[in-house]
Amino acid sequence: MESTPSPNSHSQNEYTQLLSDAASRASRYLATIRERHVGVAGDALYNLAALGGPLSLHGEDPRFLLKLLDQIGSPATIASAGARFFGGVVGGALPVTVAAHWLADAWDQNACLFDLSPVSAYLEDVVLAWLLNLLGLPPDCGGAFVTGTQMADVTALAAARYAVLLKSGWDVQSDGMFGAPPVTIIVGEEVHATMWKALALLGFGRSRVRVVPADSQGRMRASEIPRTQGPAIVCAQIGNVNTGACDPVGEICDIAHALDAWVHVDGAFGLWAATSPARKHLVDGVACADSWATDAHKWLNVPHDSGIAIVREPEALRRAMSITASYYPDPASKREPMQWGLESSRRARAIEIWAALRSLGKDGVADLIERTCRHAAMFAEGFRAAGYEVLNDVVLNQVLVSFGDDGSTARIISAIQEEGTCWCGGTLWKGRKAMRVSVSSWATTEADVTRSLDAILAIAARESKSESQSASQL
Ligand SMILES: *Cc1c(COP(=O)(O)O)cnc(C)c1O
């Protein structure tokens, strides 16, 4: 039979060349990332049009496509894999995790079932046990490897919903939410926006949720948790995305458990404070909660996407997630990943977490957390020394700074993003405009902090000067 020639039918040699080309392009990208503009500069956005246009009829040469992607795509990336991106809690990726990710991409495993990827299912068990140990959580928890904390919240809260309703004699898996006993949902005033989406998806609409006031740092005032009756879920937060503050989770657990409520912890990045001897007091009592959601792509610095849902009572998670069909194996004997999470076919996320944890070890993880917190403290000291107001207690890796009135702060943030030495974003804290510095990357050094501070302070001084000049001309 004659085969149809096509640009996509490679010889093995072409395949190898294509992968080497990708590797050298990627290496070059990472090798030069420290010296490039951290944002997107020049014509990069405009040039993206070269990646669009009508779809070709007959397909194009893969080597050409890779080159195009690199030439046009690379400049239109934000250099968050570099050392001076501080705009949001976005980690870089440890070198070993990028390399492991490449290998895993070549494996192209479907992680849904043990039989479709023994290595992936096995590593999920291994990594889950390590994570529970590292984060100080009970050793028998169940877990799912998901896209991020948003999805980890959905997953863990589905287990919570299942468990609290079952206690009231209602099986939500078979009887659904219509007619179910009402579940009281309690969150702190500073709950992360993604939690609202998770709750709404599960049938807990916004106007039904009880909101507990927070203190000046954004911590839930535990004493103000409403004393409810009936099924209830209290959502605590470890690591406020603005201030880094952690809810008093031990106290919350005591109060909630006395009400027979489930405690869920959104610990996207903050949960990692548990790995650092110097910071773990911030999460005292966290092991008493019933479920936890966290990220590996933020503070552990593995490639996106990677989140973990953890549930104290494994059966609650498995029952909320499990499905049966004649073509799926019986999940009793080994880990069937799809029986623990929402997704069926998906990538093998545990691989990069395995690589990160094994290469760092316990001390290495603690050092990564400590180092980034120290860098955040350096930023705060630098801002204060220059006379600017730091709006939060810098307990973790988050710093909020104001450069004066809201207008000046906004202008200075834009100027910093345009200048390109580093990248920081804006936020509102207690009604005031602030610049938020999140230090989450393994790659950031003290020299990067100093270089970024110098650039930020020079821009702030210049902007303030030009502002007072234009004011005096009025
Ligand atoms: C980042 C974050 C989330 C959302 O996590 P994703 O990984 O983006 O889904 C939720 N809660 C908190 C506190 C966060 O910092």
Level-2 CATH architecture of the largest domain? 3-Layer(aba) Sandwich
Query: Which structural class matches the secondary elements?
Result: alpha/beta
CATH class of the largest domain: Alpha Beta
Helical percentage: 40-55%
Unique ligands: pyridoxal-5'-phosphate
Mean pLDDT level: 95
Number of strands: 11
Outline, from the CA principal axes?
Answer: globular
Share of β-strand residues: 5-15%
> Which parts are unreliable, with pLDDT below 50 for 5 consecutive residues or more?
none
Radius of gyration: 24 Å
How many separate helices?
A: 13
Strand order of the largest sheet: 1-7-6-5-4-2-3
Distance between the termini: 84 Å
Sketch the major β-sheet.
Answer: 7 strands, mixed
The CATH superfamily label of the largest domain reads Type I PLP-dependent aspartate aminotransferase-like (Major domain)
Helix and strand element order: HHHHHEHHEHEEHEEEHHEEHEEH
